[in-house]
């Protein structure tokens, strides 16, 4: 069944560029948009594009300190590092017009949220967004402005009383958690590789929210090597019960696809097929718990040709209500475009050939299994805060 989907897009979104040696390369977004176009995703009924305006200072100040915004502008003009704000580090190199590029991504995520909140569309998307690490007063983890947090803050400003944020990036959604840690209007759920083995070193199950919002920060810290079956088991053990209890007015999700086994910066072993099943589940949960109001953002993903374009094409097709058959062959024209832009050979199909089946956690807890222990730790920490029995 077709869904209405408003995609926030401007070619300038590929201007967020830390340089040719940096892993967060804008070519991943360019390849995704081209693949979607050639697969007909944008031709589905109800799909439209939203114009994008950069977030102005007043909007950015909903989540960022005024002095930090000024520092970003200054660094993008002078190209001089500013250690006070972590600008000019290896992770966050300074580049020309950094403020303008970052503000455009922030504005795109707000445009996606606006489309959903005003009823222009059921779903709104910004695949160039999902920069979830940026902090109120500093750049962090490849992220300058936190567009995900800004979209949530904008929704709260419009009068939303309950917004849920689900982050499936391999890295902890620390910036978004930080900004709403003591706000019970926002439920943040992050499933990520354990902070014992991966940046940013946060996201333990004991991080459950501030004194006024205990249980509203939720963290599922998964061991290195977690595959499709174990990841989906964890997702379904945590996310659906909490969203059903919370009943958000809007669901905001961050779809970093760096959980894939080919990703060079992390250590989980999901396939494209496991990621696709996650998108299906989030879509269904948006319909079930948030009256279909779904704001979906991109995020991490550093295997630029084999993973990101296919993953996010599945994501946008799912949001359009026209899922792509995994056996679909990628278009020859796209292969040529990939070769021209990257010199690499493109993947041939929209699947990794996995079934991505899983056994529900409710079928039985295995204390010898590290993923089951992670699930139990999170459920024990937060479920009682919501009146849910963690043992059921």
TrEMBL record:
MF terms in GO: histone deacetylase activity
Pfam families given in the database record: Hist_deacetyl
Gene Ontology biological process: acetoin catabolic process; epigenetic regulation of gene expression
Keyword tags: Acetoin catabolism
Domain Histone deacetylase as annotated: residue spans: 22-317
Domain of life, per lineage: Bacteria
Keyword Transmembrane helix listed: no
Pathway named in the protein's UniProt entry: Ketone degradation; acetoin degradation
Assigned protein family: Belongs to the histone deacetylase family.
Protein name per its UniProtKB record: Acetoin utilization protein AcuC
